[in-house]
Prior knowledge:
Elements lengths: L1 H6 L1 H24 L12 E7 L12 E4 L2 E12 L2 E8 L12 E6 L6 E6 L13 E2 L4 E2 L4 H6 L3 H17 L4 H47 L2 H20 L1 H31 L7 H5 L1 H66 L11 H6 L5 H15 L3 E2 L2 E2 L9 H9 L4 H8 L2 H5 L7
Parallel strand pairs: 1-7, 2-6, 5-8
Antiparallel strand pairs: 1-4, 2-3, 3-4, 5-6, 9-10
Amino acid sequence: xxxxxxxxxxxxxxxxxxxxxxxxxxxxxxxxxxxxxxxxxxxxxxxxxxxxxxxxxxxxxxxxxxxxxxxxxxxxxxxxxxxxxxxxxxxxxxxxxxxxxxxxxxxxxxxxxxxxxxxxxxxxxxxxxxxxxxxxxxxxxxxxxxxxxxxxxxxxxxxxxxxxxxxxxxxxxxxxxxxxxxxxxxxxxxxxxxxxxxxxxxxxxxxxxxxxxxxxxxxxxxxxxxxxxxxxxxxxxxxxxxxxxxxxxxxxxxxxxxxxxxxxxxxxxxxxxxxxxxxxxxxxxxxxxxxxxxxxxxxxxxxxxxxxxxxxxxxxxxxxxxxxxxxxxxxxxxxxxxxxxxxxxxxxxxxxxxxxxxxxxxxxxxxxxxxxxxxxxxxxxxxxxxxxxxxxxxxxxxxxxxxxxxxxxxxxxxxxxxxxxxxxxxxxxxxxxxxxxxxxxxxxxx
Length: 446
């Protein structure tokens, strides 16, 4: 087998090269046709669009999905659902958050041979993004319309006139492209002014609608308040009658109006100079501008708190007012005594802190009591020892009552002097009983 491969090596190499070339050609064709390799490339972001007519859409023919003229994906498949053509759009994964809820889709021919592509308007950024598998309904899209469909919608006379119009326009604009461009350029300011006019008209229309609605609401409300209108007219009549019955008073008010206005003008001038002298007041303007928003935010709280204050807090305050009057003298005396009480409690607290202070206690320390004796224990620790020792002092007694124990410390020479130097050494030995101690070489070696 090896010898045969060696003899036919050029043919084997040629076959391998042809196979590699075939795989390369197949891969190139698949890439140009928009095929995806699952292991190498991530899956597309799929959404759908509904159209009433998807004529000319052929999946797998390189038809693309474009946004502002840039390719963002390919047309994947076309299916018929409920009488509508549902076109699948395979978008690139990096455009998964591009299409919004208000997106629109239009089918457009790229050439005269109906080489279609899908023009996608992704929508506004304020809307949420569409999830995978979402559908843009037919009301947000439009199919491609042929010229013959437009002409078929017209009657015979209209088609003839349209044909004459197009023929005449073609003859009149022959070799006049620059002039037509200049006309459009000069019409630009006019179109901008017309746009502003249309915006103003639309705004006035909305204002007029709002005015009519408000007028209707006002008239409806006035129709339910005829009694109050009658009282208003009657009150106005009485006011004008009173003014008419006192012409001298009106003349006097008009005469005093001029000095009042002069004084007001002088006052406003002074206030203006004060404002110029206090530029720091300008810093209050942001806070003043936000008062309306703050009041709107506080309004729900005020509405909720008003019944509580009116129905609960106010009766409580009224009921507590006599008791508060009785508590006033006691509170005054307590206010006078509170400094002394505060100092007393401060000293008591200081005393307890000193007693309980234990900076180096032996609790939990190996060694128990011996370790505690070697540490700086607090006063409460030694207080327990004092109590225990006090009890042990009076724990011994006889029929005559309790007696104290004591410890006498002396050297061997001192004890020997006491015994042998006494007038009666036998009596001293009988009382002390220290002869055995003196004769013990371990205690008194000398």
